[in-house]
Write a structure and sequence with these properties.
It is built from no helices and 8 strands. The chain is mainly β. The strands form 2 sheets. A 5-stranded antiparallel beta sheet has the order 1-2-8-3-6, with no helix packed on it. It has a 3-stranded antiparallel beta sheet with strand order 5-4-7, with no helix packed on it.
């Protein structure tokens, strides 16, 4: 067993962005906090082998998959298959929080 608490980890950009909570041995997962007007990344990215699931825990966002925009209301789950380019945008006036899970654990698998 491994037990952690989210507060023991930092977001990539200080108080927002990506925050990995567990890395390996079989999955990568964490949370993303996007402030109003922010994107997950400057541009979409994908994975050659890894699939990635996103769960919109708090707030409404826009999930962009292969350049197609999809509403992602709070409670939405989006599964991205390998080779599907994806990004998330926050068009709201509130922070949004998303849980992400990447499987299998291949930290260098990014296209």
């Amino acid at each position: 067993m491994k037990k952690i608490h989210e507060n023991n980890f930092k977001y990539r950009n200080g108080d927002h962005g990506v925050k990995y909570l567990m890395r390996g041995p079989s999955i990568d997962w964490g949370v993303i906090l996007l402030k109003p007007g922010e994107n997950m990344g400057e541009k979409s990215h994908g994975h050659d082998i890894v699939d990635e699931t996103f769960y919109f825990v708090k707030g409404d966002g826009v999930m962009i998959v292969d350049d197609i925009e999809h509403d992602a209301k709070e409670g939405t789950v989006v599964f991205c298959e390998p080779k599907e380019y994806h990004n998330i945008r926050n068009d709201s006036d509130k922070n949004i929080k998303i849980v992400f899970i990447k499987s299998q654990y291949l930290p260098d698998d990014k296209i």
